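cron nightly-structures :: item 1 of 1
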Amino acid sequence: MSLVPATSLTTPGFNTRPLQIMLFCGLWSFAFVAGKVGVADCPPLILLAGRFTLAGVLILGIAAVRREPWTLRPRDVAICALLGLANNALYLGLGYVGLQTVSAGIGGLIVSANPVFTAVLAALLLHEKLTWRKLAGLVLGVAGVAFIVWHRIAIGAEAWQGIAFTLASLASIVAGTILFKRLAPQGSLWIGNGIQNLAAGLALTPLAFTLSSVGDIVPSWRLAGAFAYLVLGGSIVAYWLWFRLLTLYGATAASAWHFVMPPLAMLFAWVVLGEAIDGRDLLGVIPVAIGIYLVTRPTRPAMTAG
């Protein structure tokens, strides 16, 4: 598949885009829970180095078995490697360090502020139109996120150090989103994802084994399950869907779906990890949901006199 304009990706018949959005949101949200499980038994950078390296090898291996043509120019390979550092190594590296001292729910919550910063930078750098409707939706979304973050900090449920690492993680994925749209790599989206994962794994491996020890790994079935999910569901399927949504909808609208991550991440964390959900946390979900609707609702074509 090539990174081509959204209009050429639409096909008649059953519309699969809503299913792609639902799958992306579910996979991405649950990844915070899987990450929290993984870092309990394995140093975060070692976990990520293994995840990215294996995912990259699998993706490129599948491409070779399928005899998918290599259409990436050297420039595109370099861009994909750069995106791997921003969207994979820095974003998740910083985020996983943060997950050692913050809950999975709050990790997903902070990262969901991605659309606010992405929308502003996309308007400045990518010339994407920032309408008043989108702006109102973004304000509502960040207000809901901020309310929940403030409440969690006020009751002493989260550590400031972990929040700082998670905020740095947020900055990384915003940068990666803008870079993807600005640099617009051409060629296979699938192979590009493989290059990104492999570049991130190679970049993190020496750092991981410098700062951590293999002896710190606690082998367990839950670690194996979390690692398998992060490789297959997170690095392979979710990231492929993410870049597809960026191509289809643009940086602002695609990033707005990150606002749905907080309630989903909190729900998954409650079911799997037993993390408590306060009723006041749920109040923040209401403006978040309205914000998603306003940012992602298609603009009606202007009516002309006939």
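cron nightly-structures :: done
Residues 221-249 form the longest helix (29 residues).
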